[in-house]
Amino acid sequence: MREDRESAVRPRTLLSVRPPAKLKGKNTAMAVWEDIITLQGETQAAEDGSPIITSFDKDLLIKYCLAEEECLWLEGIRTEVERTYRAANKRLERMKPRGGDLKDYFNALSMVNALLNRLKDFDARLDGKRKLLHTLAQSLYLTPRSRAGVAPAEREPPKPKSKLGKLID
Q1: How many Å apart are CA 39 and CA 139, to the nearest integer?
Q2: CA angle 47, 32, 78 (to 5 degrees)
Q3: 10 Å Cβ neighbour count for 30?
Q4: Is the pTM of the predicted complex or chain greater than 0.85?
Q5: Closest-CA residue to 10 (of 51, 63, 62)
Q6: C-alpha to C-alpha distances, 88 to 84, 95, 101, 108, 119, nearest whole angstrom
Q7: Predicted local distance difference test score (pLDDT) of residue 48
Q8: What is the average pLDDT score of the chain?
Q9: Where are the alpha helices (DSSP H) in 42-151?
Q10: What b/e string do you get for 78-115 counting C-beta neighbours within 10 Å, with b at 16 or more?
Q11: How many angstroms separate the CA atoms of 17 and 37, rounded?
């Protein structure tokens, strides 16, 4: 009965392994799309004609793939900022400010602090993007916990054992 209701709202159009046009030029996003659809195709649900991610989920999956790409880009920028911060901090530690050098020292200190704040900003953006990815993954049943919530088809209840079977157990 439940399966009948679910199949009644499942679209017939299947998602292709080929990424949609919205992901064109976004290599990471396209690779994520291909990986997810390929893995989904390996599931028993897909083989039975009931894939978990359907055409209704296409836009959600596109957003997930784009968020993965954006997260990777942010990680790269964050790494560059961290590298610049560490180099600037090393130079600052080597400075021995005296008299007329104090202005340069405080300018360098200000730059190091600005880089540290920028690094914190990128960490916050990455945390937010990763949280969004997790939420999208749950909605697409890509996390172990969300997949556990997908109810399997009901089985017939076991037949009661005979008196002899109960004695043997």
Answers
A1: 17
A2: 155
A3: 17
A4: no
A5: 51
A6: 6, 11, 16, 8, 13
A7: 81
A8: 87
A9: 44-47, 58-94, 102-139, 144-148
A10: beebbeebeebbeeeeeeeeeeeeeeeeeebeebbeeb
A11: 6
Contacts of 104 (CB under 8 A, 6+ apart): 95, 97
Lowest mean pLDDT among 9-18, 86-95, 121-130: 9-18
CA R_g for the chain = 27
What single DSSP character describes residue 71?
H
Q: How far apart are CA 163 and CA 115, in angstroms?
A: 78
The residue with tokens 């399997």 is 152
Q: What is the maximum alpha-carbon separation in the chain?
A: 100
Read off the tokens for 7: 């199949």
Token couple for 152:
């399997």
Q: Residues 59-111: pLDDT tens digits?
A: 999 999 999 999 999 999 999 999 999 999 999 888 888 877 888 889 999 99
